[in-house]
């Protein structure tokens, strides 16, 4: 079973015994932003997600790659 991003944030927060207000303070966000994030009611910017992750003691790592192909996109080959 996979957790949504919001469920994951909530689970990690509760494991650490933090209130939404305390997580918000640590991440320099509003409690409402934390609440919306945990309910998947907003699209998180990477910067916001990074602040939440760091406030929970995690480092955010983002990786982009091609799935099923080693060929670059057409736009990339035209610029070369």
Q: Which helices and strands, and how do they pair?
A:
Elements: H1 5-15, H2 20-27, H3 31-38, H4 46-55, H5 74-79
Helix pairs in contact: 2-3, 2-4
Give structural notes.
This protein is mainly alpha-helical. It has helices at about 5-15, 20-25, 30-40, 45-55, 75-80. Helix 2 (about 20-25) packs across helix 3 and helix 2 (about 20-25) packs across helix 4.
List keywords for this structure.
80 residues, 434 Repressor (Amino-terminal Domain), 5 helices
Offer a quick outline of the entry.
The chain is mainly alpha-helical and 80 residues long. Helix content is 54%, strand content 0%. The chain has helices spanning 5-15, 20-27, 31-38, 46-55, 74-79.
CATH H-level superfamily title: lambda repressor-like DNA-binding domains
Contiguous uncertain segments of 5+ residues: none
Helices and strands, in order, run as HHHHH
User: How is the main sheet built?
Assistant: none
User: Multimeric state of these chains?
Assistant: single chain
Distance between the termini: 43 Å
